[in-house]
From TrEMBL:
Occurrences of domain MobA-like NTP transferase (ranges): 13-175
Name of a matching Pfam family: NTP_transf_3
Species, as recorded: Streptomyces melanogenes
Domain of life: Bacteria
Protein name according to UniProt: Nucleotidyltransferase family protein
Length: 202
């Protein structure tokens, strides 16, 4: 893989935002309202404020509506027609979109975790050392998101990403290599999965 030029980012934000919100009555997570705007906008802003000048956004459920309603200027929008298969398909689509960009790493974030802000993202991003880097946020010692995958890991991660487990199997196999970055003091890793969780949005 070629090295990035001065104009190319070392670490690209990769936002997985394709979920259909099955447990939310079929409300696509990207379009949930947070602070008056679609949740996907908040997630993109956090990646940018955390230092990811380039952000790839994987869309699936209601992709056309997300494009119409959300302000995603400057993002690389990636369609995942297989989004119903689970997060693994979105991770594969997102990593494929990075091929040939010259980026050294992907910082993977989830659209339904608004409690993880720019400070946590910046901490994990700062763990990048080389395309062999592998790092993740930690919350009281428990691994969570965001996760940084150096480019050397993209192909094997994509090969192992299936169903809703995403990269869990790969990360479990490579546990000793993961640099854990404690973020529990600046972020909360909850998911917006059910109607009860909607109260966490404002």
């Amino acid at each position: 893989m070629t090295s990035p030029t001065n104009d190319e980012p070392q670490v690209v934000g990769l936002l997985l935002a394709a979920g259909g919100g099955r447990r939310l009555g079929g409300r696509p997570k990207a379009l949930l309202t947070h602070r008056g705007r679609p949740l996907v906008e908040h997630a993109v802003r956090m990646l940018r404020e955390g230092g990811c000048t380039t952000v790839h956004v994987v869309l699936g459920a209601a992709a056309d509506e997300v494009r119409a309603r959300a302000r995603l200027d400057g993002c690389v929008l990636v369609d995942n027609p297989e989004w119903t298969e689970g997060m693994g398909s979105s991770l594969r689509a997102g990593l494929a979109s990075l091929s040939g960009t010259g980026a050294g790493a992907a910082l993977v974030s989830l659209v339904d975790q608004p409690g993880i802000g720019a400070e946590a993202i910046g901490r994990v991003r700062a763990a990048y050392r080389s395309p062999a880097s592998l790092a993740a946020a930690s919350y009281d010692g428990k691994r969570g998101h965001p996760v940084l995958f150096g480019a050397d890991h993209w192909q094997p991660v994509a090969a192992s990403a299936r169903g809703d487990r995403g990269a869990r199997a790969y990360l479990a196999e490579h546990e000793p290599e993961i640099a854990l970055v404690e973020c529990g003091d600046v972020a909360e890793p909850y998911d917006i999965d059910t109607a009860a969780d909607l109260g966490r949005l404002d």
